[in-house]
Every structure is written in C-alpha cells, then in structure tokens.
UniProtKB/TrEMBL annotation:
<feature type="coiled-coil region">
    <location>
        <begin position="21"/>
        <end position="97"/>
    </location>
</feature>
<protein>
    <submittedName>
        <fullName>Peptidase M23B</fullName>
    </submittedName>
</protein>
<feature type="signal peptide">
    <location>
        <begin position="1"/>
        <end position="18"/>
    </location>
</feature>
<feature type="coiled-coil region">
    <location>
        <begin position="151"/>
        <end position="234"/>
    </location>
</feature>
<feature type="domain" description="M23ase beta-sheet core">
    <location>
        <begin position="273"/>
        <end position="366"/>
    </location>
</feature>
<dbReference type="InterPro" id="IPR016047">
    <property type="entry name" value="M23ase_b-sheet_dom"/>
</dbReference>
<dbReference type="InterPro" id="IPR011055">
    <property type="entry name" value="Dup_hybrid_motif"/>
</dbReference>
<keyword id="KW-0175">Coiled coil</keyword>
<dbReference type="Pfam" id="PF01551">
    <property type="entry name" value="Peptidase_M23"/>
</dbReference>
<keyword id="KW-0732">Signal</keyword>
<dbReference type="InterPro" id="IPR050570">
    <property type="entry name" value="Cell_wall_metabolism_enzyme"/>
</dbReference>
<dbReference type="GO" id="GO:0004222">
    <property type="term" value="F:metalloendopeptidase activity"/>
</dbReference>
Length: 371
C-alpha cells in the first residue's frame, strides 16, 4: 500500500516536473529564435542576456531542487539499509534465543516426565516422613514454576521474532519504493542539467558577442556586495556565537580539493578574487567549518546557489557555485555538518566551490583560518 502511494505521488511529481521543464525549454527556443532573426544592438543584447540569466537562475534552482531531493533519498536509502541490517541481527539473536529456550523447556518436560512416577497421594497414604513429603512437594513446585516461566519466555520470544520479521518486511518494501524514487530523481536531475547546459551555452554566446567579460564580473561583484550588506544587517550579536577570531589555522576546509583560484589573485583587469575556488567533483559534500546560523540561501548572479553563514562577532562565511543548498535561512548549523553540494551553478563551466570568509564585511584570506 505504502509503495503504491509513493508511486502515485512520484507519477504526479514527474508530470509537474515535465510541464515546468517544457515551459523553460520553450522560453529558451523563443530567445534563440529572436537572437537569430534580428540584428541586435548592444541594448537589445543586454536585455536578452538578462532574460537568459533569469532562465539560467530557474534552471539552476531546478537542478538544486532535484539534487537536494536525490541527496535526501540517498540518505533515506542508507538509513533503510542500516535498519534492515539491524533487524536481521535482531532476528538472528531472537532465533538463537528461541532455540535455547526450546531446549531448556524440553529438558524440564523430560525431568517432569521422569519424576511423574511419584504419586503424592501414595506418599501420604504410605505414611512417609512428612518432612520428606514436604521437600518433594516444594521441589515439584519449583519445577512447575520454572516450566511455566520457560513457556512464557518462549511465547514472548516468538512474539518478538514475528514483530521483527514483519518490520523487516515493511522496511524492505520501503527500500524498494525508495530505489524506484531514486532512479526517477536521477533522471530528473540529468534532464535539468541538460536544460541548464543549453541555456548556459546560449548565454555564453550572447556574452561573447556583445558583452564585456570585465563588465559582467563588475556586475557580479556589485550583486555580491548588496548581499553582504543585507547579510550584515541580519547578523547576530549573540554571545553564544564566538566568531572565528580564535580559530586561526584550526578550521577544516569546507570540502576536499586543490585550490583553483587563490585569494587575492587577479580575475580580470582590476577585479580580484575575494575568496578561493576549490576544485571538487559535482555533488561532493560541503561541510560547515564552524558552527553558525544561515542568514542567506538563494541564487545570485555569477555565484549561483549561494549560502551565507553568520558565525558571530562580525564573522561570516560564503559558499557559492553549489549544486544544491541543504539548509534554509534561519537554520542553525554545527561544525562539520553538511550544508550544500559542490556544483557549477552561476554559469560555471567547471564544478567547484567558491568559498569566502569575511569579517565586518571585509574579505579575508580563508587560508588564515583553515588548515
């Protein structure tokens, strides 16, 4: 029943996803036709670039949603597998316990049978020693009580064993339904990534033909500056958030990989890197280097799916180019907790993580804090 409900919900989700994807594909084709049929001046090219950027935003948000769902499903799959493994151990232990209890009960029944030649009434009529009779009666009472206890224990074990077997069956059904869901979500993610790639190719074509790469970087920096200013207004002065001043050289990098771009190196012209770019495969986990609170989690031009974490005392960290954001604004995160997935959003051609650390709005070298 559960599997059929999940399947029904999955079919509905796939239809909704297909309709949304078709709409975005149609919009992209319309822009492509407009570009091909008209002689564009700089102004119209800029307008089309903005349209493509907005479409890219929606494509990358859809990729993020699909990747987040897939990540959650894979987590549920792992939990389900662990539960099945635990249930199998419990079943094995209960089976062994049941077998041992059956052997104990069999021995007690055999003892009772062998002792059955003693007739209590005959012992009394034959005027056996009352003390002897009393001892025998006490002994038989103990045997009977032990027998009843063994029977009750065996019944309890059998009940628990049946319950565990039923739980294992239910968990296996859930695992199968999750596996079906995972395959569908993987297909959805692949379709969204292809749509995003088509939009990005058209956007790059427009930028190469009409727009200045340096101008684009300056626009992106201005967008990030506005986000930083907005984030600073949301920052907490809570004494429980100690900031990063005492963490020099002690923090772990948010993800594993070599530095593609170092802090302060030139991007283009007089535009320099305010953070670092870490080479990492798409879908790799991004972990919070320190505890804090999420104060921004959205798509930003040039930086894609971006998260900002407030660490207190004027410190914040930023994570861009993400494939998916796994935390929302207002969420509290612990050091080492998974917060995002490495990606190439923001129109990046290579997967990686953009990582910044700022203090009172000013960018600082992350290598100063991370080991």
């Amino acid at each position: 029943m559960k599997a059929s409900i999940i399947a029904g919900f999955l079919i509905f989700s796939i239809h909704a996803f297909a309709a949304d994807l078709d709409k975005r594909q149609s919009e992209l084709k319309a822009i492509q036709q407009q570009i091909a049929s008209e002689q564009q001046d700089l102004q119209s090219s800029s307008q089309q670039r903005d349209k493509l950027v907005q479409l890219l935003k929606r494509d990358e948000q859809a990729v993020g949603d699909a990747a987040k769902k897939l990540n959650q499903t894979e987590g549920q799959l792992e939990t389900s597998r662990q539960r099945i493994s635990e249930l199998a151990k419990q079943e094995s232990q209960l089976s062994q316990q049941q077998q041992a209890q059956q052997q104990v009960l069999a021995k007690q029944l055999k003892s009772a049978f062998l002792a059955g030649n003693h007739d209590y009434s005959k012992m009394l009529l034959n005027q056996q020693d009352p003390a002897t009779v009393e001892r025998l009666l006490t002994y038989y009472g103990y045997l009977n009580k032990a027998r009843m206890t063994a029977i009750e224990s065996l019944k309890k074990t059998r009940t628990e064993l049946l319950q565990v077997q039923q739980q294992a069956k239910t968990e296996n059904e859930r695992l199968n339904a999750l596996a079906v869901d995972q395959r569908a979500q993987s297909n959805q993610l692949a379709a969204e990534q292809q749509q995003r790639q088509n939009t990005l190719a058209q956007l790059q074509k427009v930028i190469n033909q009409k727009a200045s790469g340096l101008e684009q970087l300056q626009i992106e920096e201005a967008s990030l500056k506005r986000v930083i200013e907005q984030a600073m207004k949301s920052m907490s002065e809570s004494p429980s958030m100690e900031g990063l001043a005492k963490s020099n050289g002690r923090l772990n990098w948010p993800t594993k990989g070599a530095l593609r771009h170092a802090f302060g190196s030139t991007r283009s012209g007089n535009v320099h890197w305010k953070g670092v770019v870490i080479d990492a495969r798409e879908g790799q986990a991004v972990n919070a280097p320190a505890s804090g609170k999420v104060i921004y989690a959205d798509w930003l031009k040039g930086f894609g799916l971006l998260m900002v974490i407030d660490h207190g005392q004027g410190f914040m960290s930023l994570y861009g180019y993400s494939q998916a954001l796994l935390k929302d604004v207002g969420d509290t995160v612990k050091a080492g907790e998974e917060i995002a997935l490495v990606g190439r959003s923001g129109g990046q051609s290579q997967s990686g993580l953009y990582f910044e650390i700022r203090h009172k709005g000013e960018a600082e070298n992350p290598a100063k804090y991370c080991r």
